[in-house]
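During the second year of the project, the team shifted from modelling isolated chains to modelling whole assemblies. The rationale, set out in the original proposal, was that interfaces cannot be judged from single-chain predictions alone. As a representative example for this report, we include one of the complexes processed in the last quarter. Its constituent sequences, exactly as entered into the pipeline, are reproduced here:
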Amino acid sequence: ETGVTQSPTHLIKTRGQQVTLRCSSQSGHNTVSWYQQALGQGPQFIFQYYREEENGRGNFPPRFSGLQFPNYSSELNVNALELDDSALYLCASSYLAGGRNNEQFFGPGTRLTVL
Amino acid sequence: AQSVTQLDSQVPVFEEAPVELRCNYSSSVSVYLFWYVQYPNQGLQLLLKYLSGSTLVKGINGFEAEFNKSQTSFHLRKPSVHISDTAEYFCAVSDRSNTGKLIFGQGTTLQVKP
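Output from the structure prediction step:
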């Protein structure tokens, strides 16, 4: 059973650019959630994708968007990057069934630096 | 809405000593409670969770936590720590909705000294 994987590991961008981060969910999972962890802070929920549609969103602007593919993998896209977007981006997969979302398993994260 | 407060940003402790990491939460609805550990440059690993039932929950690596509904607390304990327990620890709550989205505290750095 493979765990949650994310790519790339590290990324450096300049302000105003766009970035795409990728996540492969754990085998058997159908839901992917994305979190942003700023330095010295706890992770904050960005959004969740279930059956290729957004299933809940945190307090993040529309320039944060995502996709989920038929194989349940997911992308996080951030447009018009700002310096404050520098953070560790964590992906978590889980299995949603019967209206209940079970334990989330986290990937190692992508460290994004915006200069 | 829910919120989580971790009462200590850093907890230094000597090896083989007991430790308690404190967590309080606020919520108008019933919640699930979690503790995660994060080692340097890694993602989050689940230590333990409280969903229902017994208020004393045992997790991995010898950790346990007690859910106290009246005090809205979920403190993490270990009777004897090791150097390898040095890490960042996060308390989190979920509002039992179908997203299961996690609301995290600010984290507590556990520093185990030899």
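The longest strand of chain A covers residues 87-94. The mean pLDDT of chain A is 93.
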